[in-house]
Automatic annotation (TrEMBL), chain A:
Protein name (database record): Phosphate ABC transporter ATP-binding protein
SMART domains, sorted: AAA
Pfam families, per database record: ABC_tran
Domain ABC transporter: 4-245
Automatic annotation (TrEMBL), chain B:
The keyword Transport is annotated on this UniProt entry: yes
CDD domains associated with the record: TM_PBP2
Record protein name field: Phosphate transport system permease protein PstA
Keywords, sorted A to Z: Cell membrane, Membrane, Transmembrane, Transmembrane helix, Transport
Pfam families for the chain: BPD_transp_1 (PF00528)
Every ABC transmembrane type-1 domain range: 66-272
Transmembrane segments: 16-38, 70-91, 136-160, 181-203, 209-229, 250-275
Annotated gene: pstA
Keyword Transmembrane: yes
Length: 250, 285
């Protein structure tokens, strides 16, 4: 089943044409990796999927994006609801300067959920899903900023999971982390695939190869190649893709 | 070799010049404080704080003046804080960054530099005459609120600017609205800087005399203000009045009142510094 579908998406920052006629579909419960050199448009495209570009004044988009069959740029769509369905994890861990509990409960609180037991249950569940519960269960009321970088990133993942999204967007989630934390995040992605559709932007091609089912290679705003990860890495159809994955440029 | 020596001489000359400049201000300030303390400290007692003004210096107290200052402080805070913070939030978080915005920004910065007596004239025309507040606490508070509004707006904007974009993105990414993001994340993260700005602005308001003279605050008020429409005096007015009297006893009174006024501003600045340090320690990105 098609979970995410993009049709002829073009995007501009002012005069700058940053996404050129991107069309692709992603299935539910899969991991899709976006790779490509810096400035190729992969992060921009990722941010189109939960409309995080809306706040950039000069940003303009053409074409349609459907998630679970709904046009997410339709006027009737409330962007807040969209982002509850399509969660996001950022490059640099960005927990709120509040306790771990408050961080994870934030999404539910802003939806108006006040019941302590509901919040506690959701926090525990989300932290377990993010493989962090055992490390922090006794320090839920300590500042999230006191944790290590890898733990902070998992708090951010738990925070995104707490509102029960269907989709998780990850913008280079491990690029600021050490190898052990990175491995934990990668294991986590493999587990989360059971319940979520995951899109991950990464500069690390080994990571893309390890975690993803399908890989999209972006270059200069174009989607050059989009295929099963194994196929793309072992048998790339385009010369550009081959050059990139073999490290000859970028 | 001579060139090198010359450079060395200039180098050490500048060092001593710098030391002189630093101590010049400090020494003047120390002499001032020492004089005031020597003159006024003996005069401060409970009676001085609780007596009404009087024609006899030994019986005169600053009850009306410091209660007036407290009233003005409170009312000015109530008026200026919501207006200033809300304006700062609007300009920084909602307002589009275009030409108009930069014109507004420059003008607010300019307003902070307008002489305070001009605000007095503005207050006289708008609050005292047009709105018919008379020479009341309310007119004084509104006038001072206008005076410090630019400071609060600028401080709020600067504090909000220092909040990293990643915090806002995290909140928006969770499906928070703009208002929820501001209320739950941005404002609390900026609160240290905003509070510091507010307190510094208020301590400026506490020391202002000129605009209050213009709007007609009285130097002699024989009763304690009980509501915002009462006429009033404040500490700087009382000091101004006393130093212009010929009797030595009033000069002593003025010195004592200056100590109290200094104390109030020092305490407020102390609170501002405390809040800033606490804030810096708590949040490191």
């Amino acid at each position: 089943m098609k979970h995410i579908e993009a049709n002829n998406v073009n995007a501009y920052y002012g005069e700058n044409h940053v996404l050129k006629d991107i069309s692709l579909t992603m299935k539910a419960n899969t991991v899709t990796a976006f790779i490509g050199p810096s400035g190729c448009g992969k992060s921009t495209f990722l941010r189109c999927l939960n409309r995080m570009n809306d706040y950039i004044d000069s940003f303009r988009k053409e074409g349609d994006i459907f998630i679970e069959g709904k046009d997410i740029y339709d006027k009737k769509v409330r962007v807040e609801e969209l982002r509850q369905k399509v969660g996001m994890v950022f490059q640099k861990p960005n927990p709120f300067p509040k306790t771990i509990f408050e961080n994870v409960a934030y999404g539910l609180k802003i939806q108006g959920i006040k019941s302590k037991s509901v919040l506690e249950e959701a926090v525990e569940k989300s932290l377990k899903q993010a493989a962090l519960w055992n490390e922090v269960k006794d320090s839920l009321h300590k500042s999230a900023l006191s944790l290590s970088g890898g733990q902070q990133q998992r708090v951010c993942i738990a925070r995104a999971l707490a509102v029960e999204p269907s989709t998780l967007l990850m913008d280079e989630p491990a690029s600021a982390l050490d190898p052990i934390s990175t491995a934990k995040i990668e294991d986590l992605i493999a587990e989360l695939k059971e319940n979520y559709t995951i899109v991950i932007v990464t500069h690390n091609m080994q990571q893309a190869a390890r975690v993803s089912d399908k890989t999209a290679f972006f270059y200069m705003g174009n989607l050059i190649e989009y295929d099963k990860t194994k196929e793309l890495f072992t048998n790339p159809k385009h010369e550009r893709t081959e050059n990139y994955i073999t490290g000859r440029f970028g | 070799m001579t060139k090198l020596n010359q450079n060395r001489i200039i180098d050490s000359a500048f060092k001593y010049f710098g030391i002189f400049c630093t101590f010049f201000g400090l020494i003047v300030l120390a002499i001032f404080i020492f004089n005031i303390l020597a003159e006024g400290l003996q005069r401060i007692d409970w009676d001085f704080l609780t007596n009404l003004p009087s024609r006899r210096p030994a019986k005169a107290g600053i009850l009306t003046a410091w209660t007036g200052t407290a009233w003005i402080l409170g009312l000015t805070a109530i008026i200026s804080i919501p207006l200033g913070v809300a304006a700062g939030v609007y300009l920084e978080e909602y307002g589009k960054k275009n030409r108009l915005a930069s014109i507004i920004e420059i003008n607010i910065a300019n307003l902070a530099g307008v002489p305070s007596i001009i605000y007095g004239l503005l207050g006289l025309e708008i609050f005292v005459r047009t709105l018919n507040f008379g020479g009341s606490l309310l007119a004084g508070a509104f006038t001072l609120a206008l005076l410090i509004l630019p400071i609060i707006i600028v401080a709020t904007r600067e504090a909000l600017k220092a909040v990293p974009k990643s915090l806002r993105e995290a909140s928006f990414g969770m499906g928070a609205t703009k208002w929820q993001t501001i209320w739950y994340q941005t404002l609390p993260a900026a609160s240290g800087g905003i509070l510091t700005g507010i307190i510094l602005a208020l301590s400026r308001a506490v020391g202002e005399t000129a605009p209050l003279i213009v709007i007609g605050a009285l130097a002699y008020v024989p009763f304690v203000a009980t509501n915002p429409m009462d006429e009033f005096t404040v500490l700087p007015m009382q000091i101004f009045n006393w130093v212009s009297r010929p009797q030595h006893g009033f000069v002593v009174n003025a010195a004592a009142a200056i100590i109290i006024l200094l104390l109030i501003t020092f305490i407020m600045n102390g609170i501002a510094i405390y809040l800033r340090n606490k804030w810096q320690k708590k949040v490191n990105w």
